[in-house]
Amino acid sequence: MKLAGKTALVTGGLGGIGRAICARFLKEGASVFAADLSDANALPDATFIKLDVTSEHAAQAAMETVRAQCGQLDILVNAAGIEIEKTIEQTTLEQWNRVFAVNVTGTFLVSKYALPLLRQSGSASIINFGSYDGFIADPGLAAYCASKGAVHALTRAMACDHGPEGIRVNAVCPGYIDTPMLRGFFRDHGDIDSLEAAVRDVHPTRRYGTPDDVANLVNWLASDEARYASGQLWVLDGGLTAQVQQMKL
After folding, report:
1. Residue 176 is a catalytic residue
2. Considering 132, 144, 176, 208, which one is annotated as catalytic?
3. Residues facing 72 on adjacent strands
4. Do residues 234 and 217 make contact, with C-beta atoms less than 8 angstroms apart?
């Protein structure tokens, strides 16, 4: 019960990784707001908030809901994100702007309007979602890679600005995690079974990550056990980027 008495809001809270984070927070004793576009995959015991992270009005309204129902916010997880599989030449301006609107502007807006509540906590934690693609690049993910690099830089800036206010800010940077997004990637690239095996075998750990693996790290960063951890980019990729040279898949 590391989070007993704390209140958390998770954007993308009903997606593959976000749902696992919400479930773990509930297990650890937190009051949880799962913010997403739809409640089709609703999580029992979490409070659903309809939230389009690209809307300033929606971000403000979400925080007013949290204030009205709990009067406090201790943990913010910016897990909402999208990707498109294109080079810059194939990417339209509308697609580029959409990726940045969700992945970067969404992180900015939700964090901006969460700050007044987070300051009241005294031991608040923001966990943003970067990616190992913010350090190295997968082919055909130009806008996604660029957006995650922006989230990494934003995370450091936020940590510097708001650390004196008792707010820690970190980013989790996952590699291949077994989610609907990864399954969609496999479906779009031919022989699913052989591709899954090839991707798995390129990892030193010989497996993908799971949403629960990510939730374990997020839970620690949200807890007071991580009270000295801030401004860091926590890569969680089964050792993939520790290798000198990556296998071409």
Report:
1. no
2. 144
3. none
4. yes
